[in-house]
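Extended Data, panel c. Modelled sequence:
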Amino acid sequence: MISLLYGFVYDGQIKEHELFGDIMAEDTANSFLNDFAQTKQGNDTIFSCWARYQEAIAQGHDAVNGTIGALLENDGSLAINQTVDKFVRNSPPIEIAAYAPLKGLPDFLDLAVTLALGDAREELENIGVHHTATASPGGSGALFLAAANYADRGSKVLLRDRHWGPYDGFLAGCGLEIATYPLLGASSGLDLPALEAGLGNLAQSQSKVMSWLNDPAHNPTGLSLTSEERMSVLRAFSNAAMEHEDVGFTLLIDAAYHVYAREPHGWAETLTDALHDGMEWPANLLLTFAISLSKSHTVYGLRGGALVSIHPDNSVVERITTVMGVTGRQTWSASSRLAQYSIAKIHSDSESGAAWSDEKVRMTEILKQRRDLFIATCQKLKVPINPTHDGFFAWLEHEDPNGIVDSCALEQVYLVPLNGGVRIGLCAIPTDKIERVAVSLSNALKE
């Protein structure tokens, strides 16, 4: 057995003292870690809750899993788009083993733009909007590319106060802080005055202002903005950019769940309408989309994604192309070739593309059935869930989310406590257990 010793030097003699206890061990570890690394504590909340559910199942309980952010079939198995699975498994060995180009396979990068802009792509190109895309390891990699390049170290990024928790870590790791505005305004819709105030306040003290907006199908609430609200956001950014010509403004749309929304490409469509209606696109305003293949193509583990940026000046997007490629090279080298190749191959053929779409529609319908049933049951039981429209999640605003989650766990219903409320993973809950979750929440609220 090895004893851990710590040496002190006195008068040329090494005096050894054995270390005991977690505190001293942590101090020793910290001697190797930089200041930021020392702030990293604990386990991911979502995966901890999932482990709690798995333990309940191992003990033989009839437990309900509302913890994870992956779509499960009603039998509890991972929902996998069979068209995607077929193409991945039948990819040539060279497409599995070889590196991808540092910025990504050209066919995939072209597809990423289409995934971001949909049918509005052609019209945007026709009116002079240019684009660039860089492949990334999942949507998380796309977020990192934005955090590492579109904001100055030490500045603040504007988020809604209810947001995906890992945003905090991505931003902190790039030396960034957070400013927030409320998820909902007084009318349970977009809080436009708070957004405008947030942009204006940051522009007073920063040379660059970036905001991340997870829409449609927001994680953790399932909220989607209306077309009118999207237009208001675009005009808020355009106005702020024109009022602060010396400040660079970036609006990032986190489109991780967009293909499961009723308006998957609403942002591109709204932008097209705004430009046709005469909205000016200031030179100091950039729009960018974080694209993830994890949910849209059910290849979570292949880590496929891209950052797509659009601007009316082609020289701007050319410079961004270079910067993002260098960032990827210096961070993860190249993203997975297999994900890029297989997904691009699917969408290059109308028949396979239609087969992927049919599977995606089937999965969307599963989510819709669960959401509709959950909303109806919560209304019946007077459970005050937040407005929820699309995607994987629903949300209960509450000042004691841990208490609610612990109470539900006593009934073998496992959910996730986050800042300000409880995330309900409709994506993982079998349809025949949805009502049970609503009942459990109702019981927890009565305690």
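The chain has two domains: 45-81+353-446, 101-335. This feature is highlighted in the accompanying rendering.
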